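does this look right to u?? iron/sulfur cluster version
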Amino acid sequence: MKILAHVCCAPDAVYFLKRLREDFPQAEITAFFYDPNIHPYEEYKLRLVETKRVCQSLNIDLVEGEYDVENWLRAVKGLEDEPERGERCKVCFDQRLSRSIEFARKIGATHYTTTLLMSPKKDIKALSEVGSKLAGDIEFLALDYRKGGGSQEMVKLSKSMEIYHQDYCGCIYGLFKQKGENSMWDLVSFSGRRPGSKEERLFIKEVRLFAESLGIRCREWEFSFLNWKLLRASLRLKDTLIPSLVVPFSRSVKGLLKADVEDVIGDTLIYNKGGIKVMLMDELRDSPLEEINPVADPTFIVSKEYRDLLLSDRISVELQAELSWDNSTVLLMGEDEKLLGIPADTLQDGRGYRFEKVCELIKEGKSIALLGAYSLGKPSLRFLRERLTRDIQVLDYPS
Ligand code: SF4
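got this back:
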Protein backbone atom coordinates (compact mmCIF):
# COMPACT_ATOMS: atom_id res chain seq x y z
CA MET A 1 0.00 0.00 0.00
CA LYS A 2 1.33 3.41 -0.99
CA ILE A 3 -0.43 6.54 0.31
CA LEU A 4 -0.06 10.07 -0.92
CA ALA A 5 -1.24 12.59 1.68
CA HIS A 6 -1.88 16.09 0.41
CA VAL A 7 -0.87 18.51 3.18
CA CYS A 8 -2.43 21.98 3.55
CA CYS A 9 -0.54 23.21 6.64
CA ALA A 10 1.39 21.98 9.67
CA PRO A 11 -1.34 22.36 12.35
CA ASP A 12 -3.72 20.21 10.27
CA ALA A 13 -0.95 17.74 9.40
CA VAL A 14 0.59 17.13 12.80
CA TYR A 15 -2.10 14.84 14.24
CA PHE A 16 -3.46 13.61 10.90
CA LEU A 17 -0.11 12.24 9.69
CA LYS A 18 0.64 10.73 13.10
CA ARG A 19 -2.69 8.84 13.00
CA LEU A 20 -2.13 7.85 9.39
CA ARG A 21 1.25 6.38 10.33
CA GLU A 22 -0.34 4.49 13.29
CA ASP A 23 -3.36 3.24 11.35
CA PHE A 24 -1.42 2.14 8.26
CA PRO A 25 1.89 0.93 9.76
CA GLN A 26 2.84 -1.09 6.68
CA ALA A 27 2.05 1.66 4.16
CA GLU A 28 4.63 3.78 2.39
CA ILE A 29 3.48 7.35 3.07
CA THR A 30 4.49 10.44 1.09
CA ALA A 31 3.32 13.92 2.04
CA PHE A 32 2.68 16.40 -0.78
CA PHE A 33 2.61 20.14 -0.09
CA TYR A 34 0.67 21.61 -2.97
CA ASP A 35 -0.93 24.91 -1.92
CA PRO A 36 -0.78 27.74 -4.47
CA ASN A 37 -3.81 29.20 -2.68
CA ILE A 38 -1.58 30.54 0.11
CA HIS A 39 -0.68 34.21 -0.22
CA PRO A 40 1.68 35.97 0.07
CA TYR A 41 4.75 33.84 -0.77
CA GLU A 42 6.37 34.39 2.66
CA GLU A 43 3.27 32.93 4.30
CA TYR A 44 3.46 29.97 1.89
CA LYS A 45 7.11 29.41 2.81
CA LEU A 46 6.34 29.68 6.52
CA ARG A 47 3.63 27.00 6.31
CA LEU A 48 5.94 24.83 4.19
CA VAL A 49 8.82 25.05 6.69
CA GLU A 50 6.51 24.11 9.54
CA THR A 51 5.19 21.17 7.49
CA LYS A 52 8.80 20.09 6.96
CA ARG A 53 9.27 20.12 10.76
CA VAL A 54 6.20 17.90 11.21
CA CYS A 55 7.32 15.44 8.52
CA GLN A 56 10.86 15.42 9.90
CA SER A 57 9.53 14.51 13.36
CA LEU A 58 7.44 11.63 11.91
CA ASN A 59 10.08 10.51 9.45
CA ILE A 60 7.71 10.96 6.49
CA ASP A 61 9.00 12.04 3.09
CA LEU A 62 7.72 15.42 1.96
CA VAL A 63 7.52 16.63 -1.64
CA GLU A 64 6.82 20.28 -2.45
CA GLY A 65 4.43 20.83 -5.38
CA GLU A 66 4.66 23.76 -7.75
CA TYR A 67 3.65 27.20 -6.42
CA ASP A 68 1.60 27.94 -9.53
CA VAL A 69 -0.31 30.83 -8.03
CA GLU A 70 -1.32 32.26 -11.43
CA ASN A 71 -3.17 29.05 -12.35
CA TRP A 72 -4.92 29.14 -9.00
CA LEU A 73 -5.98 32.79 -9.49
CA ARG A 74 -7.29 31.95 -12.97
CA ALA A 75 -9.25 28.97 -11.61
CA VAL A 76 -11.11 31.07 -9.01
CA LYS A 77 -11.68 34.10 -11.28
CA GLY A 78 -15.23 35.45 -10.83
CA LEU A 79 -15.53 33.84 -7.37
CA GLU A 80 -13.48 36.45 -5.51
CA ASP A 81 -16.44 37.64 -3.40
CA GLU A 82 -17.60 34.19 -2.33
CA PRO A 83 -17.57 33.53 1.43
CA GLU A 84 -15.36 30.88 2.99
CA ARG A 85 -16.91 27.42 2.43
CA GLY A 86 -18.60 28.82 -0.71
CA GLU A 87 -18.04 28.16 -4.43
CA ARG A 88 -14.47 29.52 -4.50
CA CYS A 89 -13.43 27.03 -1.83
CA LYS A 90 -14.90 24.14 -3.87
CA VAL A 91 -12.81 25.17 -6.87
CA CYS A 92 -9.79 25.58 -4.57
CA PHE A 93 -10.19 22.02 -3.19
CA ASP A 94 -10.77 20.66 -6.71
CA GLN A 95 -7.61 22.24 -7.97
CA ARG A 96 -5.41 21.12 -5.10
CA LEU A 97 -6.82 17.60 -4.98
CA SER A 98 -6.71 17.11 -8.78
CA ARG A 99 -3.04 18.04 -8.85
CA SER A 100 -2.37 15.79 -5.84
CA ILE A 101 -4.02 12.85 -7.62
CA GLU A 102 -1.91 13.51 -10.71
CA PHE A 103 1.15 13.35 -8.49
CA ALA A 104 -0.17 10.24 -6.68
CA ARG A 105 -0.45 8.49 -10.08
CA LYS A 106 3.02 9.62 -11.03
CA ILE A 107 4.59 8.00 -7.96
CA GLY A 108 2.41 4.88 -8.20
CA ALA A 109 0.34 5.53 -5.07
CA THR A 110 -2.64 3.22 -4.48
CA HIS A 111 -4.43 5.59 -2.06
CA TYR A 112 -4.57 9.29 -1.42
CA THR A 113 -5.98 11.56 1.22
CA THR A 114 -5.72 15.17 2.43
CA THR A 115 -5.06 16.88 5.74
CA LEU A 116 -7.83 19.34 4.80
CA LEU A 117 -10.12 16.68 6.35
CA MET A 118 -8.69 17.72 9.71
CA SER A 119 -9.46 21.42 9.40
CA PRO A 120 -12.34 22.55 11.66
CA LYS A 121 -13.31 25.17 9.06
CA LYS A 122 -13.72 22.70 6.20
CA ASP A 123 -16.85 20.72 5.37
CA ILE A 124 -15.75 17.09 5.69
CA LYS A 125 -18.71 15.78 3.63
CA ALA A 126 -18.02 18.14 0.71
CA LEU A 127 -14.32 17.27 0.80
CA SER A 128 -15.02 13.54 0.82
CA GLU A 129 -17.36 13.90 -2.17
CA VAL A 130 -14.82 15.91 -4.17
CA GLY A 131 -11.99 13.56 -3.17
CA SER A 132 -13.88 10.40 -4.15
CA LYS A 133 -15.18 11.93 -7.40
CA LEU A 134 -11.69 12.91 -8.54
CA ALA A 135 -9.98 9.72 -7.38
CA GLY A 136 -10.71 7.47 -10.43
CA ASP A 137 -8.53 4.39 -10.13
CA ILE A 138 -6.90 5.55 -6.87
CA GLU A 139 -8.75 5.03 -3.63
CA PHE A 140 -9.58 8.16 -1.61
CA LEU A 141 -9.23 7.70 2.15
CA ALA A 142 -11.99 9.85 3.67
CA LEU A 143 -10.53 9.70 7.17
CA ASP A 144 -12.34 11.51 9.96
CA TYR A 145 -9.63 12.01 12.56
CA ARG A 146 -11.49 14.96 14.06
CA LYS A 147 -13.92 12.75 15.96
CA GLY A 148 -13.20 11.01 19.28
CA GLY A 149 -11.24 13.97 20.63
CA GLY A 150 -9.00 14.19 17.54
CA SER A 151 -9.43 17.94 17.17
CA GLN A 152 -8.35 18.48 20.79
CA GLU A 153 -5.37 16.14 20.32
CA MET A 154 -4.40 18.11 17.23
CA VAL A 155 -4.37 21.38 19.19
CA LYS A 156 -2.36 19.79 22.03
CA LEU A 157 0.22 18.31 19.69
CA SER A 158 0.52 21.51 17.69
CA LYS A 159 1.09 23.50 20.90
CA SER A 160 3.66 21.07 22.25
CA MET A 161 5.64 21.32 19.00
CA GLU A 162 5.24 25.13 19.02
CA ILE A 163 3.96 25.07 15.46
CA TYR A 164 3.17 28.37 13.74
CA HIS A 165 -0.60 28.75 13.65
CA GLN A 166 -1.91 30.92 10.84
CA ASP A 167 -4.91 33.15 11.50
CA TYR A 168 -6.45 32.98 8.03
CA CYS A 169 -7.23 30.19 5.61
CA GLY A 170 -4.75 31.12 2.91
CA CYS A 171 -5.93 33.20 -0.06
CA ILE A 172 -6.06 36.98 -0.43
CA TYR A 173 -9.83 36.91 -0.95
CA GLY A 174 -10.52 35.06 2.30
CA LEU A 175 -8.05 37.36 4.04
CA PHE A 176 -9.77 40.55 2.78
CA LYS A 177 -13.13 39.24 3.95
CA GLN A 178 -11.81 38.25 7.35
CA LYS A 179 -9.58 41.21 8.21
CA GLY A 180 -10.70 44.05 5.94
CA GLU A 181 -8.16 46.84 5.66
CA ASN A 182 -6.07 45.24 8.44
CA SER A 183 -5.09 42.56 5.92
CA MET A 184 -2.53 44.94 4.42
CA TRP A 185 0.20 43.94 6.88
CA ASP A 186 -0.27 40.27 6.03
CA LEU A 187 0.38 41.04 2.38
CA VAL A 188 3.26 43.49 2.58
CA SER A 189 6.71 42.03 1.89
CA PHE A 190 9.58 43.82 3.64
CA SER A 191 13.11 43.89 2.40
CA GLY A 192 15.31 42.14 4.91
CA ARG A 193 13.77 40.77 8.11
CA ARG A 194 12.18 43.69 9.91
CA PRO A 195 11.06 43.20 13.53
CA GLY A 196 7.89 41.13 13.82
CA SER A 197 7.66 40.50 10.06
CA LYS A 198 6.84 37.20 8.36
CA GLU A 199 10.39 37.25 6.99
CA GLU A 200 11.80 37.33 10.52
CA ARG A 201 9.53 34.50 11.67
CA LEU A 202 10.41 32.43 8.61
CA PHE A 203 14.12 32.85 9.38
CA ILE A 204 13.60 31.69 12.98
CA LYS A 205 11.57 28.68 11.82
CA GLU A 206 14.16 27.71 9.19
CA VAL A 207 16.89 27.81 11.84
CA ARG A 208 14.72 25.70 14.13
CA LEU A 209 14.17 23.12 11.37
CA PHE A 210 17.93 22.90 10.90
CA ALA A 211 18.67 22.61 14.66
CA GLU A 212 16.04 19.90 15.09
CA SER A 213 17.47 17.97 12.14
CA LEU A 214 20.65 17.67 14.28
CA GLY A 215 18.62 16.45 17.24
CA ILE A 216 19.01 19.71 19.20
CA ARG A 217 16.22 20.51 21.63
CA CYS A 218 14.51 23.82 20.85
CA ARG A 219 12.17 26.03 22.78
CA GLU A 220 10.33 28.97 21.28
CA TRP A 221 8.49 31.79 23.04
CA GLU A 222 6.24 34.39 21.53
CA PHE A 223 6.21 37.89 23.01
CA SER A 224 4.45 41.16 22.21
CA PHE A 225 6.28 44.40 21.62
CA LEU A 226 5.67 47.93 20.44
CA ASN A 227 6.56 47.89 16.77
CA TRP A 228 7.51 50.79 14.52
CA LYS A 229 6.98 50.07 10.84
CA LEU A 230 8.27 52.35 8.15
CA LEU A 231 5.94 52.44 5.17
CA ARG A 232 7.60 55.11 3.09
CA ALA A 233 10.26 57.80 3.46
CA SER A 234 12.22 60.11 1.21
CA LEU A 235 14.39 63.18 1.64
CA ARG A 236 14.93 65.36 -1.44
CA LEU A 237 16.63 68.56 -2.28
CA LYS A 238 15.11 69.89 -5.50
CA ASP A 239 15.32 66.84 -7.81
CA THR A 240 18.08 65.08 -5.88
CA LEU A 241 17.11 62.16 -3.73
CA ILE A 242 19.41 62.15 -0.69
CA PRO A 243 20.29 58.64 0.55
CA SER A 244 18.89 58.44 4.07
CA LEU A 245 17.64 56.22 6.86
CA VAL A 246 14.99 57.08 9.43
CA VAL A 247 15.51 56.97 13.19
CA PRO A 248 13.07 54.36 14.57
CA PHE A 249 9.94 55.73 16.28
CA SER A 250 10.03 58.88 14.15
CA ARG A 251 6.44 59.95 13.59
CA SER A 252 4.82 60.41 10.17
CA VAL A 253 4.62 63.78 8.43
CA LYS A 254 1.55 64.85 6.50
CA GLY A 255 1.94 64.65 2.73
CA LEU A 256 5.02 66.26 1.21
CA LEU A 257 6.58 68.74 3.65
CA LYS A 258 8.99 71.46 2.50
CA ALA A 259 11.28 72.92 5.18
CA ASP A 260 14.30 75.18 5.64
CA VAL A 261 17.19 74.78 8.06
CA GLU A 262 16.50 76.82 11.17
CA ASP A 263 19.40 75.80 13.36
CA VAL A 264 22.56 73.72 13.24
CA ILE A 265 23.70 72.10 16.47
CA GLY A 266 26.88 70.10 15.95
CA ASP A 267 26.01 67.50 13.32
CA THR A 268 22.28 67.94 13.68
CA LEU A 269 20.28 70.13 11.30
CA ILE A 270 17.01 71.36 12.73
CA TYR A 271 14.29 72.47 10.31
CA ASN A 272 11.58 75.04 10.71
CA LYS A 273 8.60 72.73 10.12
CA GLY A 274 7.16 69.50 11.52
CA GLY A 275 10.01 68.99 14.05
CA ILE A 276 12.13 67.59 11.21
CA LYS A 277 15.78 66.88 11.97
CA VAL A 278 18.68 65.52 9.97
CA MET A 279 21.51 63.80 11.83
CA LEU A 280 24.76 63.79 9.90
CA MET A 281 26.88 60.68 10.39
CA ASP A 282 30.26 59.57 9.06
CA GLU A 283 28.50 56.85 7.07
CA LEU A 284 24.95 55.83 6.38
CA ARG A 285 24.37 53.12 8.94
CA ASP A 286 21.47 52.06 11.07
CA SER A 287 22.11 51.06 14.67
CA PRO A 288 19.99 49.03 17.08
CA LEU A 289 18.10 50.94 19.75
CA GLU A 290 19.20 50.33 23.32
CA GLU A 291 15.71 51.37 24.37
CA ILE A 292 12.73 53.07 22.80
CA ASN A 293 13.31 56.79 22.38
CA PRO A 294 10.19 58.69 23.55
CA VAL A 295 11.07 61.72 21.40
CA ALA A 296 9.27 61.00 18.15
CA ASP A 297 10.38 63.90 15.92
CA PRO A 298 10.78 62.85 12.28
CA THR A 299 14.54 62.33 12.14
CA PHE A 300 16.62 61.30 9.15
CA ILE A 301 20.18 59.96 9.14
CA VAL A 302 22.34 61.20 6.28
CA SER A 303 26.05 60.85 5.45
CA LYS A 304 28.18 63.92 6.22
CA GLU A 305 29.16 64.22 2.55
CA TYR A 306 25.72 65.81 1.96
CA ARG A 307 26.16 68.53 4.60
CA ASP A 308 26.92 71.41 2.22
CA LEU A 309 24.22 70.38 -0.20
CA LEU A 310 21.65 70.19 2.60
CA LEU A 311 22.60 73.66 3.85
CA SER A 312 22.27 75.11 0.35
CA ASP A 313 18.50 74.89 -0.09
CA ARG A 314 15.15 73.77 1.32
CA ILE A 315 14.33 70.08 1.57
CA SER A 316 11.14 68.16 0.85
CA VAL A 317 10.33 65.25 3.06
CA GLU A 318 7.93 62.32 2.99
CA LEU A 319 7.61 60.00 5.95
CA GLN A 320 4.91 57.51 6.73
CA ALA A 321 5.30 55.12 9.64
CA GLU A 322 2.99 53.17 11.90
CA LEU A 323 3.05 52.03 15.52
CA SER A 324 1.40 48.79 16.56
CA TRP A 325 1.61 45.99 19.10
CA ASP A 326 2.99 43.00 17.25
CA ASN A 327 4.39 39.58 18.08
CA SER A 328 7.82 38.19 17.58
CA THR A 329 9.62 35.13 18.93
CA VAL A 330 12.72 33.99 20.78
CA LEU A 331 14.18 30.63 19.84
CA LEU A 332 16.37 28.81 22.33
CA MET A 333 18.64 26.01 21.09
CA GLY A 334 20.91 23.94 23.34
CA GLU A 335 21.28 23.36 27.07
CA ASP A 336 24.51 25.19 28.03
CA GLU A 337 24.47 27.66 30.91
CA LYS A 338 26.09 30.22 28.61
CA LEU A 339 23.97 31.36 25.71
CA LEU A 340 25.07 33.15 22.59
CA GLY A 341 22.42 35.71 21.64
CA ILE A 342 21.96 36.38 17.91
CA PRO A 343 19.60 39.07 16.57
CA ALA A 344 17.08 37.45 14.20
CA ASP A 345 16.00 40.69 12.55
CA THR A 346 17.90 42.93 10.15
CA LEU A 347 18.59 46.65 10.46
CA GLN A 348 17.21 49.21 7.99
CA ASP A 349 20.50 49.14 6.12
CA GLY A 350 20.07 45.38 5.56
CA ARG A 351 22.72 44.16 8.03
CA GLY A 352 21.85 40.96 9.86
CA TYR A 353 22.93 37.36 10.34
CA ARG A 354 22.77 34.98 7.41
CA PHE A 355 21.11 31.60 7.83
CA GLU A 356 24.38 29.82 6.96
CA LYS A 357 26.26 31.72 9.67
CA VAL A 358 23.76 30.75 12.37
CA CYS A 359 23.87 27.11 11.19
CA GLU A 360 27.66 27.18 11.41
CA LEU A 361 27.48 28.32 15.05
CA ILE A 362 24.92 25.63 15.82
CA LYS A 363 27.16 22.97 14.26
CA GLU A 364 30.05 24.23 16.42
CA GLY A 365 27.92 23.17 19.39
CA LYS A 366 27.05 26.65 20.70
CA SER A 367 23.85 27.08 22.69
CA ILE A 368 22.00 29.91 21.01
CA ALA A 369 19.15 32.30 21.70
CA LEU A 370 17.84 33.71 18.41
CA LEU A 371 16.31 37.05 19.33
CA GLY A 372 13.38 38.48 17.37
CA ALA A 373 12.82 42.26 17.03
CA TYR A 374 16.16 42.90 18.72
CA SER A 375 16.88 46.19 16.93
CA LEU A 376 13.85 47.95 18.42
CA GLY A 377 14.99 48.29 22.04
CA LYS A 378 15.90 44.59 22.63
CA PRO A 379 12.43 43.42 23.74
CA SER A 380 13.35 39.76 23.16
CA LEU A 381 16.37 40.01 25.44
CA ARG A 382 14.35 41.66 28.19
CA PHE A 383 11.66 39.00 27.77
CA LEU A 384 14.21 36.17 27.97
CA ARG A 385 15.97 37.61 31.02
CA GLU A 386 12.68 37.53 32.90
CA ARG A 387 12.40 33.79 32.21
CA LEU A 388 15.98 32.52 32.33
CA THR A 389 18.85 32.97 34.71
CA ARG A 390 21.32 31.73 32.07
CA ASP A 391 24.11 34.06 31.01
CA ILE A 392 23.43 35.59 27.58
CA GLN A 393 26.16 37.22 25.50
CA VAL A 394 24.61 38.97 22.49
CA LEU A 395 26.58 39.38 19.25
CA ASP A 396 26.62 42.75 17.52
CA TYR A 397 25.00 43.00 14.11
CA PRO A 398 27.57 42.05 11.47
CA SER A 399 29.41 45.01 9.95
S1 SF4 B 1 -10.74 30.63 1.76
FE1 SF4 B 1 -9.27 28.91 1.87
S2 SF4 B 1 -10.27 27.13 0.93
FE2 SF4 B 1 -11.39 28.99 0.33
S3 SF4 B 1 -10.49 29.60 -1.60
FE3 SF4 B 1 -9.39 30.74 -0.04
S4 SF4 B 1 -7.64 29.45 0.46
FE4 SF4 B 1 -9.07 28.16 -0.68
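The chain has twelve helices and 17 strands. idk if thats expected tbh
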